[in-house]
Write a structure and sequence with these properties.
By secondary structure, this protein is of the alpha+beta class. It contains eleven helices and twelve strands. It binds adenosine-5'-triphosphate and magnesium ion.
């Protein structure tokens, strides 16, 4: 027969090695919600050792997520465990992951602790989700296009008839015919935007910084001193095959949205980087140019985040909800990808443009990198 303390020690050593072997990342927080233990899987996930993480507050991991202090305190008090899906943990600019997190209460040395288990939403799942969302977007766009087409056909006839009629009626009655013409023009304009870009892109090797500078110039003319535009360019970016006007329009729509969402206290940053090993609609891309449009405004309303790129989805009372859908179409025409990540204080739209060949020579572009 083994003694009770022998079994207890034995059990502890099994538990310790079990935690070390788990593929699930596990973090334990004490009553003050500071980290007291992370297993090796969590060290790998957070890219830091237990030594560096010890005593770090939980907020460092869960900033801007639904797992806030008050919920964890409630968990300690009631023991009521919870699971939250799609928690985006953002440790720094380049280290972000999505996970399902289960929080439960465990007792160590007679005091309640929080046990956090992370199930990382793996890349494959993320890619399938992206592909699914892209297909949904294509279906919604085709439906709207079909409808827009049906509306457009009779509109021309309606306008023509009103024009003819205006020649037959008195000048007082012409007020009515011009109203028909005016409204028909307004509808045609809307329908044309619904139909989206209808010309094939004219691809040419372009300096993306030149295109971004043009956008800055355009928004500068229409908004004057009001906006703070910052540049964070990688001057060594190679030229990319793109249609200058289309790319400019795509970026302009995104920048205009940011301008509409922010005020003088906020700013917009245009960032360029070279990106490697990314997936675009399920396809692996070796090298791409990444253009990010970042603002520190209020963020995208949560209720439209999942359908943001669908046509006619708007969070503004006077918005038509077409800007981002058009940008999406334009970027897709470049075999690229437009994505967004937003929370209050940080909204980031990212355009990925694949580079056809690996540049042999990353000669600096003539454009100035910063202002
Ligand atoms: N940077 C941002 N910050 C906050 N909200 C944003 C931002 N960008 C987009 N949005 C939200 O996304 C919505 C959709 O944008 P989109 O450009 O597609 O349509 P819109 O701006 O409403 O109308 P349109 O561009 O057709 O005039 C916006 O209405 C706004 O609520
Ligand atoms: Mg817009």
């Amino acid at each position: 027969m083994h003694s009770r303390s022998y079994i207890q020690d034995h059990k502890l050593s099994y538990q310790q090695s079990l935690a070390n072997q788990l593929v699930t990342a596990v973090i334990i927080l004490n009553e003050k919600l500071s980290i007291v233990y992370v297993n090796p899987a969590a060290e790998a996930l957070l890219n830091k050792s237990l030594y560096r993480l010890f005593n770090t507050e939980s907020e460092m991991i869960f900033a801007n997520t639904s797992i806030n202090r008050s919920r964890l305190i409630q968990l300690l008090a009631t023991g009521q465990e919870f699971t939250d899906c799609d928690i985006v943990v953002e440790l720094n600019e380049s280290h972000r992951f999505t996970a399902e997190v289960t929080a439960s209460s465990v007792e160590f040395e007679r005091t309640p602790h929080v046990l956090l288990e992370f199930k990382q939403i793996d890349q494959q799942k993320q890619i399938s989700l992206e592909v699914f969302q892209h297909q949904q977007w294509l279906a919604a766009r085709d439906l709207i296009k079909g409808l827009a087409h049906e509306i457009k056909n009779p509109l021309g006839g309606l306008r023509g008839a009103a024009q003819l009629l205006s020649k037959e009626v008195t000048s007082e009655q012409q007020e009515y015919t011009s109203m028909i013409i005016e409204q028909a023009d307004r509808l045609t304009n809307l329908v044309d935007r619904l139909l989206g870009p209808n010309q094939l892109p004219q691809m040419q090797a372009q300096n993306v910084h030149g295109i971004l500078e043009k956008v800055c110039q355009l928004v500068g003319y229409s908004n004057g001193q009001k906006i703070h535009l910052l540049r964070d360019y990688d001057p060594s970016l190679p030229a990319v095959e793109c249609d200058q006007e289309k790319l400019q329009q795509a970026v302009l729509n995104i920048v205009n949205n940011a301008i509409q969402a922010i005020d003088e206290k906020h700013n917009i940053t245009l960032r360029t980087r070279i990106a490697s090993n990314r997936t675009i609609h399920g396809k692996r891309i070796k090298l791409a140019i990444e253009i990010s449009i970042i603002d520190n405004g209020p963020g995208i309303p949560t209720k439209i985040q999942d359908t943001l790129f669908y046509p006619m989805v708007s969070g503004r009372s006077n918005g038509t909800g077409l800007g981002l859908s058009i940008s999406q179409t334009l970027i897709n025409q470049h075999q690229g990808k437009l994505s967004c990540h937003s929370r209050p204080g940080h909204t980031e739209f990212t355009i990925l443009l694949p580079l056809k060949q690996q540049p042999l020579n990353r000669a600096p572009l003539s454009q100035e990198s910063t202002l």
